[in-house]
Design a protein that fits this description.
Elements lengths: L1 H10 L22 H13 L6 H14 L4 H8 L4 H7 L5 H18 L7 H11 L5
C-alpha cells in the first residue's frame, strides 16, 4: 500500500482511482491477462516444468487438504459452490498421501491377517472374528 501511495503522489492528476490494489504505475487496472503472461515468463526463465498460474490454486487446495483441512473448509477457501467440484478438481492427491494410505492399509491387513501357525479353518475363524464377520 505504501508503494501505491507513492505511485499515486508521483502520478498526480494522472492517477486513475481504479480501486484495485495491483495496478499500473498510474493506478489503472491491469489487463486481465497481465499476471498470467508474467507468470508464464517467470516459469520459462526459471527452468521450472510447465505450470499454469491457476495450477497454483489447485496445489494450494491439495496442500491444505493434505495438512488436515477438511474438504468443506477447502471449498469455502476456494469459493466453490459445490463440494463435489472441490473434491473432483481441486484436491489432487499428493504422492505422500498415497504412501501414507498404502502403509496404513498394509498395517491393517497385517493386524487382521490369519496366523500361519493355525490351519486354514482356524485361521479363517480368527480373521472373521477379528474383522467382525461371521463364518
Amino acid at each position: 500500500m505504501q508503494r501505491q501511495r507513492a505511485e499515486r503522489l508521483a502520478a498526480g492528476d494522472g492517477w486513475h482511482d481504479s480501486g484495485y490494489v495491483f495496478t499500473t504505475l498510474d493506478g489503472a487496472a491491469l489487463h486481465p491477462d497481465w499476471l498470467t503472461r508474467r507468470f508464464r515468463r517467470f516459469v520459462v526463465d526459471s527452468g521450472l516444468p510447465p505450470v499454469r498460474l491457476h495450477d497454483l490454486r489447485h496445489g494450494a487446495a491439495s496442500l491444505a487438504h493434505a495438512a488436515g483441512a477438511d474438504l468443506k473448509t477447502v471449498q469455502e477457501q476456494l469459493g466453490h459452490t459445490s463440494i463435489v467440484l472441490t473434491a473432483d478438481t481441486c484436491t489432487s492427491v499428493l504422492l505422500d498421501l498415497h504412501f501414507k494410505v498404502a502403509e496404513a492399509t498394509a498395517r491393517s491387513e497385517r493386524a487382521n491377517a490369519p496366523d500361519p501357525r493355525f490351519g486354514r479353518a482356524e485361521a479363517w475363524a480368527k480373521c472373521a472374528s477379528t474383522c467382525n464377520r461371521t463364518t
